[in-house]
Amino acid sequence: MNEVIETILNHRSLRHFEDMPLTEEQIKTIVSCAQSASTSSFIQAYSIIGVKDKAKKKKLAEIAGNQEYVEINGHFFIFCADLNRHSIIGEMVQTDVTPSIESTEKFMVALIDASLAAQNAAIAAESMGLGICYIGGIRNNLEEVKKLLKTPERVIPLFGLTVGVPTKLTDIKPRLPFEHIYHEDEYEQDKQVYISQLQKYDDFISSYYDERTEGKRKDRWSEQMAKMLDRKSRMYMKEFVQKNKLDLK
Amino acid sequence: MNEVIETILNHRSLRHFEDMPLTEEQIKTIVSCAQSASTSSFIQAYSIIGVKDKAKKKKLAEIAGNQEYVEINGHFFIFCADLNRHSIIGEMVQTDVTPSIESTEKFMVALIDASLAAQNAAIAAESMGLGICYIGGIRNNLEEVKKLLKTPERVIPLFGLTVGVPTKLTDIKPRLPFEHIYHEDEYEQDKQVYISQLQKYDDFISSYYDERTEGKRKDRWSEQMAKMLDRKSRMYMKEFVQKNKLDLK
User: Fold this and answer.
1) The dihedral formed by the CA atoms of B152, B153, B154 and B157, expressed in degrees to the nearest 10
2) What three-state secondary structure class fits B81?
């Protein structure tokens, strides 16, 4: 196993950091790594906003559900899907790029581009001995995030990435079984096989929690998911995205 | 610079591979790395389909615009946004998860999840000395891809990842300037600054092509982008996604 694969497999989300800023060099390395990711037809449809301002970080931590590690860390990056750049290019080159930019296809491209870049940033940070945690919680209130970061139309802040020197380690969480996530030549056609894989995983997750909490917690993954999905969270998203003139048609 | 950062910064998309299949162990390592990526609230909303069947690969290569490297490679992975799993969980646990699953928020989550996983797979493959290329071209005709891979509702094949032993290297393509992609505390408010950064990059890209093609090609990035976005490509996507019961509300 090489150093890269070791770093990748060793990932766990960390949520306690020293209050010690990354150096400018560390930030530049992480952003360069993000930019090295593949990008659909070289479109580079994302932006990264690094938040240093303490008041803004505090506010973002509140939005994300009072998560202290959004406020106290080495650096807080926010990854945005960004087609504003391409809208401006349309003006520069006098080409009507609007129908393209407003399509669901390009919305997907921008989301994928931003996410590939973010994962490179995450791996790079972890390879430097830093801990990371993605912060989807900023999507609790994107109107507010948008005001804080002054993002224009066609820019959607997608998630944060908090990075820093970890003060507390967590365990690696076991993922779905290989044969459930990975199909060959076609998607699993037998629903019973599919369900039994989920049940096997449920048992495994349940005993994983059981062991780690001395019997206090034994929840199954499918129950966790059903509970989470039973809450209709962030149902304003479609309206928000379309108000920002993306994913319209 | 450590080995991980070196691997990441050394990325270039490769499009010529030996016709030599990856080993099962290589495939398992790559998929394990994909699975190690962060996932929103542990939702794991993606699937990976590895295509080995030669006839299917040939067909996928045609769909992707007659790209030979989709057919001839070490392995062809397809990454899918997948909320079918969670729909089945809803039935298993008897919880109405439908409004949640059909929301734009969860569509975004699935896209982000699949993309984070894919980028881990890409970096892992590259660390093993293999070359990779993302294949967005499968989105040229997702109805056809869906039939080939027999994916159910709530599953959207997003992109392929072709992996293999490279037979021809390409250059690393220079990305947008750091100060244009990376903002601090707020998005760049001065449009003139933003435009002048783009123009500087345009000049740079133009001389990059000029040098590499002995003057045959001098196109600027903004012109490339305007030309690409002037074509309304894959405008069926919204209808396709909604027909598959995602991104509905």
Assistant:
1) 60
2) strand
* Cβ of residue A165 closer than 8 Å to a chain B Cβ: no
Rounded to the nearest 5 degrees, what angle is found at the Cα of A42, between the Cα atoms of A39 and A44? 65
Closest CA to B186 of A72, A80, A246: A80
Say yes or no for a CB contact (<8 Å) between A88 and B178.
no
Nearest to A119 among B40, B88, B120 (CB): B120
| Dist. CA B141–CA B136, nearest whole Å | 11
Give contacts of A189 with chain B, Cβ < 8 Å: 150
Measure B222 CA to nearest chain A CA, in Å: 6
Question: Looking at chain A, which residue has its C-alpha nearest residue B142?
Answer: A105
CATH topology of domain B3-171: NADH Oxidase (3.40.109)
The reply to whether residue B43 touches residue A228, judged by beta carbons under 8 angstroms, is yes
- State pLDDT tens for residues B32-42: 999 999 999 99
The list of chain A residues with pLDDT below 70 reads none
* Neighbouring-strand partners of residue A48: A79, B182
Instruction: Report pLDDT for A38.
Output: 98
- According to the model, what pLDDT value does residue B48 have? 98
Overall average pLDDT of the B191-200 stretch: 97
Regarding an ipTM greater than 0.95, the answer is yes
pLDDT at A221: 97
CA distance A168 to chain B (A): 18
pLDDT digits (tens, 9 = 90+) for B34-63: 999 999 999 999 999 999 999 999 999 999
On whether any CB of chain B is under 8 Å from the CB of A185, the answer is yes
Residues of B in Cβ contact (< 8 Å) with A133: 38
B156 bridge partner residues: B81
Q: What percent of chain B has pLDDT over 70?
A: 100
Q: Residue A11 is nearest to which of B36, B175, B227, comparing CB atoms?
A: B36
Locate the domains of chain B by residue range: 3-171, 178-229
Strand partners, B163: B75, B132
For residue B16, the model assigns a pLDDT of 97
Write the burial class of residue B186 (CB in 10 Å: 0-12 exposed, 13-18 middle, 19+ buried): middle
Least confident of A180-189, A228-237, B128-137, B211-220: B211-220
Contact B185 A52 (CB under 8 A): yes
Residues of A in contact with B249 (CB under 8 A): 235, 238
B232 pLDDT band (50/70/90 cuts)? very high
pLDDT value, residue B206: 96
Query: What CATH number belongs to A3-170+234-243?
Result: 3.40.109.10
Averaged pLDDT for residues B65-91: 97
B229 vs A contacts (CB less than 8 Å)? 86, 89-90, 95, 97, 100-101, 106
* CB B7, CB A37: distance < 8 Å: no
